[in-house]
Amino acid sequence: MSKSLKPEETEPSGAEFLPGLAVDTVIFGFHDNQLKILLLEYRNTGLLALPGGFIKNTENLNDAARRVLAERTGLQDIYLEQFHVFGDLTRHDPTPLRAIMQAKGLQPDDDHWLLGRFVSVGYYALVDFTKAIPIPDELSDSCGWYDLAALPPLMQDHTDIVRKALATLQADLDRKLIGFNLLSETFTMADLQCLYETILGQTLHRSGFQRKILGLGIVERLEKQYSGGAHKAPYLYRFISNK
Amino acid sequence: MSKSLKPEETEPSGAEFLPGLAVDTVIFGFHDNQLKILLLEYRNTGLLALPGGFIKNTENLNDAARRVLAERTGLQDIYLEQFHVFGDLTRHDPTPLRAIMQAKGLQPDDDHWLLGRFVSVGYYALVDFTKAIPIPDELSDSCGWYDLAALPPLMQDHTDIVRKALATLQADLDRKLIGFNLLSETFTMADLQCLYETILGQTLHRSGFQRKILGLGIVERLEKQYSGGAHKAPYLYRFISNK
DNA sequence: TATTATTGTAACAATTTGATACAATAATAA
DNA sequence: TTATTATTGTATCAAATTGTTACAATAATA
């Protein structure tokens, strides 16, 4: 849980936010045939966390998640979906957050609003890796992409959150045709198949995959992509939004 | 939003609960070939609402939903699932709740904790209609089953909540094999097919349906059910939990 | 110009699903 | 007792989908 804290927001009240409620976002990207997620790192503590934030009193819950996403990636109009609410008592662990605040030179009281119990609404986002620009928040000193396949330990219950986000993404992939959000605007059939295989964690038959995708009528074929190697050049495709 | 209010909980603080956070439950039942949901009705106001409640400071979020479900139906160990969080500003409308409290002889201040903005976590439950005993809460005077197909207007955004719950149930039905939770322990193939058709809102082919269900290996065939009319008696089946 | 690896698609098999048909059979009525 | 009736369980075949293999058509390189 790493939250945006402007100076005036570090006061104990947190009065401009809904109390005890947070959003955490699992931001997926795809690069070098690997699924990645965006993580924040805190100086001196070595702690890694999902981008998160609080909900303003004057803000819709979903808009808070969009704001967090925009603040960490610079991106608007991104595929973003609620997937689960994490509300167990066991997730309350003020130790790492206190360490982060102390590393920042703060000396929070035990009843500081940031150290209390939080219920967190989990969102996952699918972004074009080439367009997102990772931006740290006020408490963290770096923000970057990490391979999902080799994820380091995360703060609090964030590993559970990531696991649940991936499970939801896997279940949603065919039902909602959302994979395209992870690719740049044009892509080859091999790119798309690799994406599907990586998300689902299984190999797919090339012929059947191509037949299925083309049969859905949701991509249009563009020019060929040359300079791909000593072989026939693949076509590029573009996703056609169903509107 | 109808919440359990014991006398000492009507005090303005609501201090034993997480502030600004609620759960609302869409409790599905199936009877007379109709999908039903459980609703609370408030005296003098004519308002109908989903069963809901608050999360104790010492309680897991999911346990709060289980508690609400148990308090309204008397049932434990019920299929219960989070499906969406409702957090828009537009859902904040203190008028109906004030009317309910006034009908109860209360005169709440404008800043009474019950009249503030709430983010609500939506759950849906699937119960055996024959086993649930609807029990009103402290603010309501009746609790009963209503046909989903002819739902009267509900308080606040509860109609949206019901619509989203149904959409989730429809999407989950085949993927998770959860329909059995709505039937009594034994049922005929016709019962099960009618349930599926009612939830999905479409007719299914009898032969294919039977073949599919039997092919899944998740039901065991019991004795025949006689006295069903002037025709061949159907078998009864029982769901085999996959453990 | 030959070689190489990959692509697009055809072709066929295997499987699943859709639709129809029909014998079996409980309850009711004749 | 016997015929009638509606429903059930399953078989059968057609249609659609999916799994698998095969192969000609290339771009780049040697």
Fold topology:
The structure is a homodimer of 243-residue chains.
Chain A: E1 17-31, E2 34-41, E3 48-49, E4 52-56, H1 61-73, E5 79-86, H2 94-103, E6 119-126, E7 142-147, H3 158-176, E8 186-187, H4 189-200, H5 206-216, E9 219-224, E10 235-239
Parallel strand pairs in A: 1-6
Antiparallel strand pairs in A: 1-2, 1-4, 2-3, 2-7, 5-6, 8-10, 9-10
The structure holds a DNA duplex (30 and 30 nucleotides).
Reading off the top of the CATH hierarchy, the class of the largest domain in chain A is best stated as: Alpha Beta
**How many beta-strand segments of chain A?**
10
Q: Give the topology string of chain A: H per helix, E per strand.
A: EEEEHEHEEHEHHEE
In the predicted model, the low-confidence regions of chain A spanning at least 5 consecutive residues are 6-12
Would you tell me the overall average pLDDT of chain A? 92
Number of helices of chain A: 5
Helix content of chain A: 25-40%
Number of domains of chain A: 2
CATH topology of the largest domain in chain A: Nucleoside Triphosphate Pyrophosphohydrolase
Largest interface: pair, residues per side: A-B, 24 and 24 residues
* Rg of chain A, Å, rounded: 20 Å
**CATH homologous superfamily heading of the largest domain in chain A:** Nucleoside Triphosphate Pyrophosphohydrolase
CATH architecture of the largest domain in chain A: Alpha-Beta Complex
Q: Which of globular, elongated, flat, extended, rod-shaped describes the shape of chain A? A: elongated
Strand content of chain A: 25-35%
